[in-house]
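Hi everyone, sorry if this is the wrong subforum. Our group has a chain we'd like a structural model of before ordering constructs, and none of us has done structure prediction before. Sequence below.
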Amino acid sequence: MFQGPFDQVYRFYYQRLNLRQKQCYNTMVEHILKYEKEFELPCFISAQEVSEVFDAVRDDYPLFFFLNNHGWKTRGTTLYAVITYRILEKNVQPLLDKVIKEVTPLVNSLKGKTEEEKELAIHDYLVTHSVYEKDRQYYVHQILGPILYHKSVCEGFARAGKMLFDLVGMRSAYVTGCGNCYKKTQEEKEKKNSNHAWNLVFIKNVPYYLDITFDAGLGKPDEIWYAYYNMSEEQILRNHLPAKPELANCLAGGDYYTVRGLYIQRKSQLRELVEKYLRAGKKTLMFRMDFSRPIEELTKNVVDVIREVCIRMPGKWWIKNYVVYEPQYIFCVRFYEMQK
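Answer:
Right subforum, don't worry. Here is the predicted structure as tokens:
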């Protein structure tokens, strides 16, 4: 039987199965840990229910990176699960050990930390230690990609996030849907074939969406953007469409910028924030604006306000450049101080 922290898994999808499926789920986990390819299930359920159980197991257990696919067959009134694996049995435990060894320093450093501190550290670790890179190798779709090879696609980022949240004792889930569907109608979003994966994270029992992949694609390692950090339903739906929106009701107010006083709704707020940063000598300012106005009009007003503050501040501050991430109304403004 494979050895690892399998008892630390938060079984989000298990809780949403019916009683017979839960019995099959537990049996499936038991036999997968033994690398068994065919085994009897305790209940006779439909093919659709078997698929739901397999998906629940795979999505709850990111450490099962060695799973490939599933099938089923019957013998009389007995139902059997048929499991295929993508990695030879002899290679599984060494890879499990490598993954746990790699993340142990991070996990140990988060002991005694708050949920907010743990989440931030996990997000930043994955964003800075791995790049988004498509590869024909299976591992970019699993935790091996971002943890051992430092490259990943969305599936790998989301599964690695789920694993790390499990290891630090936080509740989270791996969720799927479509991404990159900004400015599409609901009908177009539903038709758009843009499979994507991200996370659902619980902070003080409140669920939020977290898309590590999209944040990894923004900015630089020394300038992390948090455009998709603890998003509400309204925020995520601007360019994502969860496959199962009924899984959670994510409320506003928990995103990175709002929590830190960087969500701007009035000119007076922006003036105060820019002045505060310039007085402290900070040369980069990132903030979120309200969605209520067209981005072109809003950008002009934002730049005018910032230039006004720069002119009346002591010294000679000016805008070096600015970037606007339109899908989430995130502004990144860089300043320079002219030599006196």
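For your construct planning: The mean pLDDT is 93. The radius of gyration is 23 Å.
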